[in-house]
Amino acid sequence: MSGKRYQAIFMVLLMCTSYLISPGVPSAEAESNGRSLRHIYAFADGDGQNIATYGGGSPDTSTVVSIPKGAKVTDVEMKLAGASATGWSDVEVSDVEDWMSGEYTSIDVRSEDLTLGMLNPELSFESFGLDTYVDAQSTAIYDNGSFALRQPHTSNATETRFSKQVELQSNVLMSRSQGAIVKHHDYLFMSTWMGSQFQTMVKRMFVDNASLDTTIHLDQGNCVLPQDPSSSYYKGYAFRDWALTDDERLFGIFTTYKYFYSNAAPAEYHRVLEFDVRDDDVWHCLHSYDISPQFGDYTALSYDRTRDKVWVVHNSQHKVVTYEFDNGQFTRGDLIYTFNTAGSANQCGTSNGITRGIAVHGDMFFMRCLKDNYYNNRDQIKAWAITGSSTSLIPQPSPITISSMGTGLVYDGERLITVDSGYSSSSNSLRYREFGSGITYDTIPAPGSTTWYGDVIYTESDIVAVNVESYWSAVSQGDRVDYWISADNGTHWELVTSNETIHFDYPGSELVWKIQLIGSSAVSWWFEIEYATEYSPSGTWYAPVLQVGTSIGKVRPEWDFELPTGTNIQFRVTNDEGVNWYDAVNGQELSFSSDTASTDIQYAITLSTDNSVFTPRMEEVIFWYEEGYPDKPELDVGNDGTFDWQSIQFLNESSVIASDSSSVGSEVSAAPSLVEALNTFIPQNGEGNVEIPIAVKAASPGRVKIYDLDITYEMVTRAVSVEIEGGVLVPDGIWRDLSVYVALGDGVNSVTEVTAGLESDNLPSTAFRWETGNQCNTVNTEQNFVFYDSGNCTLTTTPSGLKKITIPVKSNWTLQDNPSSEAIISVVDNEGLKVSDWTSDNFGLRIENDLQLSDLSFFDFNEQSLQDYAWVRGGTNLSISGTFSFEGTS
Q1: Of 760, 768, 806, 763, which is closest to residue 787 (Cα–Cα)?
Q2: CATH 1.10.579.10, domain 122-152+446-532, yes or no
């Protein structure tokens, strides 16, 4: 029989360049203190930079460095710069709504262009009151019933006094919950009496069906409200009665006292409140008045458009008194009338009656009063008149009874209007009511277009800008009201958009306006003119603070503008709530300091002029910004959860240097440990390079560009690898070369001792030791499993500079199988012990002692091949042919 042993061809590819420098990773060498200093300038993929993207969760681990095994890092430095994770975004500002969203001083935001504000503007409010100027050329008419401009009417009507004209039921009406009601700007406004929230006690309803439109807001301002009753049982806010005057004001008797079972109305729970009611969404309280001194309680109030007076009923004294209210002060007039009715049952004018509402027009007085006892739940409406010089009102015939209690009565220029409240919580069938007044009023407005001309306003200097705020309505589709204004007495007209400032192309000193009513339903309620002959010398507009999800690194504002001679525009940006402002240039990028990082940013525009009749104009701003810049980046070498460099700076496109030299307190929060961390993850022995991740995170999401890497290191004496001839050890009696590779460290002259042995769970301690002069000996001579040929060990130098110690080795049959054994190596150089019992990581020696038979054939004495179950003659010779090999070899 013949045997075959397995022999593997083991090829080692050695680099022709300096050992252990990975392909594609640039490095360099320099001399320092007699040793060779090496540098790594690129990352593991060969690139000189890497972008780490931190999304706010786990750190980014895409940054990897490749360092030779056996390297000792002495210094590390890299640059970090921020990069946007989102790219450019923008906010555009270009119209009135945009400009109004900012804050400003001495700036006008009420036009498509941002401009300087008016200097010392004048105001002219036109409410179409009783003293409205009437130009002979005007074709529209002034309606003193609704205090508005309307189309001429083609007819009129006179309705019988107290005749029922309108009765509406509505789910808005609830028992014991209504106060006064008034018709204003073609809406119904009703005071509720069902709570104690001043701001929300007035409902706006539609005229045609009394359904709810909205709850308006009452702005209390500086008005003083009366005290609340001590008992919550009597507490309830409402207006008992109110009236509109001709200048968009409303006077109402406000009360905190709600009690339906007596005629008491204690004065301490009442005040007359004066409101500005030009806005249908918000009524602003201007003043409050206590008019009880000398005259006692007051329960009803009306405006007489024929006298331009407010009348108030002092119920206990049965007097109706005129008042003038002016800027928080009141004056009682000389017109005082008494009203009395004989009898003891409750009704208007009786000694124990209570007047709940009054409407006055000329010599006619209409009152709503309690009728009979409260539990009868009914009221009376009664007319009174002034006769001759008498100071007593004369009752008129044919009063009417309303089948529900209620408060308030208003004459709207056509009819008497009121609303029911009811006496108890079970009261139902409540109604909004309109009654004929017996007073003639116009009806059926004419179609077409008409014009109303205002009076001329003269100024000493030319008017440069004007703002007109207007209010009109039209119920028919296509009907509208146009407002026009001119600074040169009508030579050049400008069409007005309400509350949008006009900067005159043709300034002048004669300001005039006109109103065009188009369509039969067009109504102009009021308008206000603000005008000036100069602009403010300077002013600033602050954009709303822009809040984004990640830190903003840079901005690029772009703007369109108009800059007359002598004017200027300054654009500034802040990212620290205005502590520091940075000047910006149109169309150029602005990066922020690394000292601050913010997700909030704001810009400001300052306009100025040296000539008060000119203003710069900012027409449009496109504010570009890049967010997604990281704040306070941190580096974790090895991704072990310990961050070895922790910046305290905002990282925009300007770079910061990460190194162990970073200053604590101004650059980093704690002493860096990059060098120590790198050395922790570099194996001190072995072949090739180790890849070490550098995890990156930050205080805010963003991208971190890492570049200009410079890792300085030196190589130390190290064990590199082990190999055995054929890659397998079998007990076939053949000596096989065992080679141990050692690399000298930078600055080391020689290796003086190498100890190496096989490591296996199945082996006792076995090793050999090489010493200078190719002196070898077996360390453990008592074992008889592995044998070293100590007399034939040699030290050679490979082309790549490695030291190769070679010694023949063999094993016997008692050595058990092992699929992968490693070597244990120690190395001493001329400086001392450098490697102590290092276990190799890629030797993988196979130890085999099992034989495998194969290709067996049997032959008889005639050399005939025998098959399974063949018969042979006894006493003859058989021959066997075949091969055998150790397991796994051939």
Answers
A1: 768
A2: no
d(CA 574, CA 567): 24
321 CA to centre of own chain: 58
* Angle at 280 (CA atoms; ends 276, 285), nearest 5 degrees: 25
Contacts of 682 (CB under 8 A, 6+ apart): 67, 69, 70, 71, 72, 73, 690, 692
Predicted TM-score (pTM) of the model is: 0.69
- Tokens 């999800």, residue located: 549
DSSP labels, 41-89: -S-TTS-SEEEEEE-SSSPEEEEEEEEETTEEEEEEEEEEEEE-SS-EE
The torsion angles phi and psi of 599, rounded to 5 degrees, stand at: -95, 0
Q: What residue ranges do the domains of the chain occupy?
A: 27-85+630-713, 91-116+536-626, 122-152+446-532, 179-380, 718-847, 854-886
Cα-to-chain-centroid distance, residue 837? 61
Q: Compute the mean pLDDT over every residue in the chain, rounded to the nearest whole number.
A: 90
> Given the structure tokens 């006892």, which residue do they identify?
373
Over residues 348-375, the pLDDT tens digits come to: 999 889 999 999 999 999 999 999 888 8
Instruction: For residue 678, give the 3-state DSSP assignment.
Output: helix
Q: Which CATH class is domain 179-380?
A: mainly beta
Query: Quick check: helix, strand or coil at residue 757?
Result: strand
Sequence-ordered list of residues with C-beta below 8 angstroms from that of 199, at least 6 positions apart, any chain: 217, 218, 219, 220
Say which amino acid occupies 135.
Answer: D
User: Which tokens go with 871?
Assistant: 């018969």
3-state class (DSSP) for residue 681: helix
What CA–CA distances, in Å, run from 499 to 259, 502, 531, 741?
Answer: 45, 9, 12, 90
- CA torsion sign for 316, 317, 320, 326 is negative
The answer to whether the 122-152+446-532 and 718-847 domains have the same CATH topology is: no
Beta-carbon contacts of residue 465 (< 8 Å; ≥ 6 apart)? 108, 115, 118, 501, 502, 503, 504, 531, 532, 535, 615
Burial of 539 (0-12, 13-18, 19+ CB in 10 A): buried
Q: How far is CA 720 from CA 715, 717, 823, in A?
A: 12, 9, 11
Is CATH 2.60.120.1020 what the domain over 91-116+536-626 is classified as, yes or no? yes
Residue environment code for 725-760, b if the CB has 16+ CB neighbours within 10 A, otherwise e: bbbbbbbbeeebbbbbbbbbbbbbeebbebbbbbbb
Tokens of 541: 């507009």
Residue among 324, 304, 301 at smallest CA distance from 313: 301
- The number of C-alpha atoms within 13 Å of 477 and in the hemisphere containing its C-beta is 0
Beta-bridge mates of residue 68? 689
Distance CA 22, CA 94 (A): 58
- Top-level class of domain 718-847: mainly beta
What is the token pair recorded at 769? Answer: 């030791």
CATH 2.40.160 fits 27-85+630-713, yes or no: no
Q: Is the dihedral of CA 127, 132, 138, 144 positive or negative?
A: positive
Q: Which of 851, 856, 849, 860 is nearest to 883 (CA)?
A: 856
- Looking at 40-49, 570-579, 814-823, which range is the least confident one? 814-823
Hey, what are 691's tokens?
Answer: 């890849």
Is-contact 733 787, C-beta < 8 A? no
pLDDT per residue as tens digits for the range 506-555: 999 999 999 999 999 999 999 999 999 999 999 999 999 999 887 888 89
Q: Please, which residues have CB within 8 angstroms of residue 517's CB and are 6 or more apart in sequence?
A: 140, 149, 150, 151, 449, 450, 451, 452, 481, 523, 524
> Residue 421 has what pLDDT?
93
Q: Quick check: 272 and 253 in contact, CB under 8 A?
A: yes
DSSP secondary structure letter of residue 130: T
